[in-house]
Amino acid sequence: VGAHREGRFEDAARIFGEYLDLCPGLCKVVHNNRAGSLLRLGRYAEAVRDADACLRIDRTWEKGWLRKVEALRASGRATEALDVALDGAKSLSASAKLQEQVDALLSLPENEGFLTGASADFVDRKGKIFCASCSAVSECRHGAAGSHGEFLYCKPDGSASCGSVRYCSEKCRSADRLQHSKSCRDLRRVDSICRVFETGRVWMGHAEEGEPRFVVRVDGKLAFAFPRGLGDLSGQTGRITDLQSWARLAAESERPIATDASSQALSAPRFQSIMCGAPGSFQSPEDELLHARATDVASYPLTIWRALQRFGLTDGGRRESLVIHVVGAEASREGLAHAHVGPILGSLLGPRQRLLVASIGPLYLEGEGAASMLQTMKLWREGSGSGFMHQPHRMGYAEYLASPFYEKPDLVMFFHPGFHDGTYPWWPTLQFLMHEDVPIALTSFSESDFLKNQDMAQSELFRTRVQFGGTPEEALNPFESAFPTPFVVGESRLRYPNRYLAGWCGMQERFPKGGGMFDAGHAEVMAMSLCRNVDAATSARERYVLQARGRSYLEFAEALGKTRPPAEGMLRDTSPELWGMVLRTLDARD
């Protein structure tokens, strides 16, 4: 802070960054202060990212909203700054400072004609606002909107507004009352979903020039409407080679995919024609966008299917059951797609195969309650439950391993884990799974990400056996999503989810040599070696990574101590010095 006050902004940004390396994502004040230094240096995109980090930590913090507005306005993005100021003012209704920002931004020439309170549902690519009942406000037959063009919310039953539909006048709202009352409940559900999964709103302001923009509620409707009523496709899986042909097969078989699309989003025939198209063949940017979003929803369950195929686990129903762990799951990614895993995999595997999918991650959705989940788990183990069961677990894998919910997996699936990164301590999870000879499948966004994961897997600590996808060409996933996501929110560089798919199983050589089971003793030794290396670390980031890995190994030691005794004689041949040497070598390569 002192460096910033003295005008040494470069030094201030560096010092704040070193602090954040020690505890990333935890301190909103440091992110906010670094954003201030970066603004003085003219590094606006980085300042916006720090402001976003503030809001991810605490969306009720006024300074975070103000900093993001300041950063966007400084970078010449006045319309986006206004949009953020409006969101902040809505979230913090008592914030006089944010309302002052709204008023100031509305007076700028860039925001001339901007209508406050406008929902994303009614913003087209040129920024015009539409009334749900008549037409654009400028052509409205029943009078202009409020003092700043404010729209009225729907109130079909006299209760609180649903926030999904806006009207420019009381007359328009009354005219639409009957029609909207039929769909208001669905719109409210979609709106609540979109408050959790904000991908669509982020992209409203960051679409590349010439690329179609989309609105968050169409995104939500489509995501939740996609895989209904697929029927049994297990006898025709030989014809399924990529996402497009899979969609065509479903359409040709007259299996309506979206008959119950919420709020009349799409009719089944139109949706099927969109799903069966190819990029570049659509008549409108909106249809091309809907196609891309549909592939994104389907990509996650179909990538699991592809991994099962490559590991030889789709063997014509000879297995009575399959257990799949989706590890490192997040609410904003796997959480959005998990509702479709059962219908799609069930259609492909056939009605006789029982399927359990456990989604595990500290950032995942909460389950329905331990007692209820244990009861359904008991029924499934007894073979009397339903053919498909999904269980969400908001916890780390070590905690799950020691829980009564644990069931040994036939496949463990990681979506974009970035094993090589060091931000998340994946080492003990991977060592455990490799020593257990559990099939592991992982996806990567880019070739660079893919190659780094493969290099790490062949280091002395793992030496895994690559079962498929050893090179970028072999790892290309036919079920890649066609829906772009940003590398960093606020930047225009794009990447596509699940582009590469690789499979690992077991180890070429046990580590330490001759070792078999990865037990609690191994985990303890690893943790101790890592902790001894913390003092020798040369940077704040290296210390953070070592400490995080050490804690993770201790968690695994505790979990394995509860579930299995140390293997006889296993630690007798284990040298802590050897482990320390290998770890230092590996860390030097990071």
TrEMBL record:
Annotated ranges, domain Mitochondrial splicing suppressor 51-like C-terminal: 301-484
SUPFAM superfamilies registered for this protein in UniProt: TPR-like
Matches recorded under InterPro entries: Mss51-like_C (IPR046824), TPR-like_helical_dom_sf (IPR011990)
Pfam family, one: MSS51_C
Protein name: Mitochondrial splicing suppressor 51-like C-terminal domain-containing protein
